Amino acid sequence: MSVPADREPGRDALRAHRARARAEPAGTLETARHVAEDLADGLAGPRARAAARGIRRLLGVEGVGLADLSGGLVRSGRLPAEADTAAMVEDVLHTESRCTRGQLVALPLIVHDEMAGALLVAGRAGRAALREVAGVIVAALERGHLEASAEHAAQAELRALRAEISPHFVYNALTVIAGLVRSEPARSRELMLDFADYIRYSLARHGEYTTVADEFHAIETYLALQRAVLGDRLRVQVRVAPEVLAVAIPYLVLQPIVENAVRHGIEPCAGGGHVQVTGEAEGADCVISVEDDGAGMHPAAAEAVLAGHGGGSMGLANVDRRLRNVYGPWFGLVVETAEGDGTKVIVRVPMFQPGVMP
Predict the structure, then answer these.
(1) How many CB atoms lie within 10 A of CB 83?
(2) pLDDT class for 26, splitting at 50, 70, 90?
(3) Secondary structure (3-state) at 107
(4) Starting from the edge strand earliest in sequence, which strands make up the sheet with 73-77, in order?
(5) Where are the alpha helices (DSSP H) in the chain?
(6) Bridge pairing between strands 63-68 and 114-122
């Protein structure tokens, strides 16, 4: 039995939508962009239903469903009541093949060669349109996976940096503290508190950002311990302008640079040397420099260290990568060095950056 035209408002609406899509490509592209953004958290994410609505608008069909690997279905519009959508989803997830029953089509969504879910479409939609929309969904899911992987990698790097405490430094610091217990008990107690502060800051489960003030306090405790170990071989000067103390900065940015200056710049020199740390404002930027007059290195060696190929400590490469990720490619470390002529490492960060706060 045919259905009168006035009983099919959905079809009229779909035809009108397709006409609008042809006339307004910018609107179609905007909808596709929103679908990709809504799928950032995956097929079971909080915006999956909004993504399904966007896909339905893109295809101009009566209904759309998105299913993840659990088989749970998020839908927009109307799917045929008589269709066993659960069975179709299960069939697609197991066979990784397209499944069609009447005007209901289920497509596999494969991300990085692995099944990720299924797309159900109810209504007339061409194969080319279905293929393009499935491509948009898969690309969005791949991007979400990559961003999640990058975030996990960054967290793993920070955890590794927190754990990168030199056993040699810990042994020497505790030996010096123990040696002062009887002869200089007050200084021994002071150094033990510095040691506790250093360990607490290095291993504490902070967030991703801290302040310049906290970073300077951490390096002051480290340098106090190193001066107790190295004695007159290590001379230190720390200066920081008050206006930059509250600037937010990624956690554990300065400590690896200062540790590198002492371990690789001063310790190899028989006569020791001088480490100078300064922090000041330059226009809209906070500029921090760590300079030593120790062993230095060939510029090519410094370049290899920043690229993560220098062996030994991963600290400088880790700091450089995190600064670029947070502030952009222009905000990486600047290293000025030459063999036998010391090393200067410069950190430049904006005084304020949206989203960066302790």
Answers:
(1) 17
(2) confident
(3) strand
(4) 73-77, 63-68, 114-122, 104-111, 99-101
(5) 9-23, 25-38, 48-59, 85-95, 127-163, 167-180, 185-203, 212-230, 254-260, 299-306, 315-327
(6) antiparallel
**Measured between alpha carbons, how far is 322 from 35 in angstroms, rounded to an integer?**
30
Q: Which tokens is 242 given?
A: 């008050």
Task: Indicate the SS3 state at residue 66.
Answer: strand
Q: How many CB atoms lie within 10 A of CB 280?
A: 14
| DSSP three-state, residue 274 | strand
Token pair listed for 55: 């896909």
Rounded Cα–Cα distance for residues 302 and 342 (Å): 12
Q: Count the residues in the chain.
A: 358
Model confidence at 6: pLDDT above 80 = no
Place of tokens 């920043």: 306
DSSP class of residue 243?
A: G
Using the CB atoms, write b or e for 100-132: b if 16+ within 10 Å: eeeebbbbbbebeeeebbbbbbbbebeeebbee
Residues 6+ apart with CB under 8 A from 140: 35, 36, 37, 39, 40, 51
Q: What is the pLDDT of residues 269-301, one digit of tens each?
A: 989 999 999 999 999 999 999 999 999 999 888
- Which amino acid makes up residue 67? A
Could you tell me the two tokens for 166?
A: 């030199």
* Closest listed residue to residue 33, CA positions, set 163, 189, 178, 139: 139
At residue 123, φ and ψ (nearest 5 deg) are: 130, 180
Rounded Cα–Cα distance for residues 306 and 45 (Å): 37
Q: Which long-range contacts link 215-220 to residues 24+ away (Cβ below 8 Å)?
A: 215/249, 215/252, 215/253, 215/254, 215/255, 216/240, 216/245, 216/254, 216/277, 216/279, 218/254, 218/255, 219/254, 219/255, 219/258, 219/277
d(CA 180, CA 34): 65
Q: Which two tokens stand for residue 202?
A: 């290095």
CA-CA-CA-CA dihedral for 317, 319, 322, 327, to nearest 10: -120
